[in-house]
């Protein structure tokens, strides 16, 4: 009886967590979308728009600080406070939209908003292992990531319609309501919390905790290697989908607006499906056979490359598009499956008192790898017109090299080794 009651309580906590995060992320996506369009409409300059976006991406480097805070304070309280802070910032942005120096002030407030957001991810990912059994980690991590990805996909679509009808200020106020609703829902989550004394004061204790977190990463080889592979996934595969996919669809296959939208939607949907069904696909996945996912991804990229050699004629473009979808969708799913598996594995082997710091480190490293990868993919695809064989061959070869690296990193790692590390 007690076991059933605990299960129901755990399920409620997960529902509240997912629902609260979904609403919060949706509100944040609506807010960023409205502000990006507002900046473009006000200035008409892509360089200013890009600068505002770049500045708002810098705070991911603050994630480890958020992780240290997550390990010291009540995580439910932190989630609620962060969404209240987001709501307050959204209200300030509402008033800023009508000012003369609005673009500059938007940049500052977006920077602060992004700092708050950089704290949110480690708090959530560090909370999940405390709410579910280890056997459920892939399932819950997949659900959380899938729902959040869906929010990020749907928000711009709805935001675009509402922006044209209602304008930026109404969307900003709407995001405020989303943040407040998310804070209310998150207040019902019950996350186990053991208060730990701040022996040296807040600042010195958090600094000491940060150093300890980095030491934990360095001495725990499973965590260190997992962070490296997670960063490489984003560096090459995520960057390829962000930069390479539009080039393939628009430049190589000369897709019209509807086909372009279909291709991009299928890629986005595949990553969401990969996250949602990660628990099923990772049942037989282990660190010592993880390299096979990269091997399969690399081979699929070569198959995609062969299909794209038909591009150039109307019939050839259709063949290329079909093979792009057939090969690209599994790669998108594999990318999510690898990420979910690595996150879940790190959650398993990390001591509870270090969960926030370690999860923040893996998130920061993975996210920082994306812009670096985008630059590399952009350089590889720089001269691409209709002939993409060589650039895509380079990308596929890099993925196969990561497969070899992954094999050598984890070939002697067993399940017993993993749990011995935690002990």
TrEMBL record:
Membrane topology per record: Multi-pass membrane protein
GO terms under cellular component: plasma membrane
Localization: Cell membrane
Gene Ontology molecular function: transmembrane transporter activity
Domain Major facilitator superfamily (MFS) profile: 13-415
Keyword field: Cell membrane, Membrane, Transmembrane, Transmembrane helix, Transport
Domain of life: Bacteria
Major place of residence: membrane
TM segment ranges: 14-36, 48-70, 77-97, 103-132, 144-165, 171-191, 227-253, 259-278, 290-311, 323-346, 358-381, 387-410
Identification of the protein by name: Major facilitator superfamily (MFS) profile domain-containing protein
The species this protein was found in: Enterococcus caccae ATCC BAA-1240
Upper lineage: Bacteria, Bacillati, Bacillota, Bacilli, Lactobacillales
């Amino acid at each position: 009886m007690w076991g059933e009651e605990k299960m129901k309580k755990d399920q409620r906590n997960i529902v509240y967590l997912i629902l609260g995060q979904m609403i919060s992320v949706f509100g944040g996506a609506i807010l960023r979308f409205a502000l990006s369009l507002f900046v473009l409409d006000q200035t008409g300059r892509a360089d200013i728009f890009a600068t505002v976006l770049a500045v708002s991406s810098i705070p991911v480097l603050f994630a480890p600080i958020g992780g240290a805070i997550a390990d010291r304070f009540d995580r439910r309280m932190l989630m609620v406070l962060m969404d209240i802070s987001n709501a307050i910032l959204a209200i300030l942005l509402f008033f800023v939209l009508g000012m003369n120096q609005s673009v500059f002030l938007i940049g500052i407030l977006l920077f602060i908003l992004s700092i708050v957001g950089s704290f949110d991810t480690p708090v959530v990912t560090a909370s999940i292992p405390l709410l579910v059994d280890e056997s459920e980690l892939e399932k819950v991590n997949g659900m959380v990531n899938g729902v959040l990805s869906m929010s990020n996909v749907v928000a711009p679509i709805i935001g675009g319609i509402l922006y044209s009808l209602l304008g930026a200020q109404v969307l900003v106020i709407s995001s405020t309501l989303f943040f407040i609703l998310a804070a209310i829902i998150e207040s019902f989550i019950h996350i186990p919390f053991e208060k730990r004394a701040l022996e040296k004061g807040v600042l010195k204790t958090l600094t000491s905790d940060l150093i300890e977190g980095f030491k934990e990463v360095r001495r725990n080889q499973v965590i260190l290697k997992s962070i490296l592979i997670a960063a490489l996934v984003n560096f090459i595969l995520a960057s390829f989908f962000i930069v390479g996919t539009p080039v393939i669809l628009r430049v190589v296959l000369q897709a019209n607006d509807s086909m372009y939208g279909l291709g991009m939607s299928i890629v986005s949907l595949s990553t969401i499906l990969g996250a949602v069904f990660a628990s099923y696909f990772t049942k037989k996945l282990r660190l010592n056979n993880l390299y096979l996912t990269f091997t399969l991804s690399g081979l699929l990229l070569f198959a995609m490359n062969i299909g794209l050699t038909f591009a150039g004629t109307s019939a050839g473009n259709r063949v290329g598009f079909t093979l792009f979808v057939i090969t690209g969708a599994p790669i998108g799913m594999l990318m999510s499956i690898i990420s979910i598996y690595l996150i879940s594995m790190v959650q398993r082997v990390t001591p509870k008192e270090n969960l926030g710091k370690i999860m923040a480190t893996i998130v920061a490293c993975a996210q920082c790898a994306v812009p670096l990868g985008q630059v590399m993919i952009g350089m590889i695809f720089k001269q691409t017109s209709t002939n993409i064989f060589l650039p895509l061959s380079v990308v596929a070869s890099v993925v196969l090299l990561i497969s070899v690296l992954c094999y050598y990193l984890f070939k002697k790692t067993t399940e017993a080794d993993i749990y011995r590390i935690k002990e």
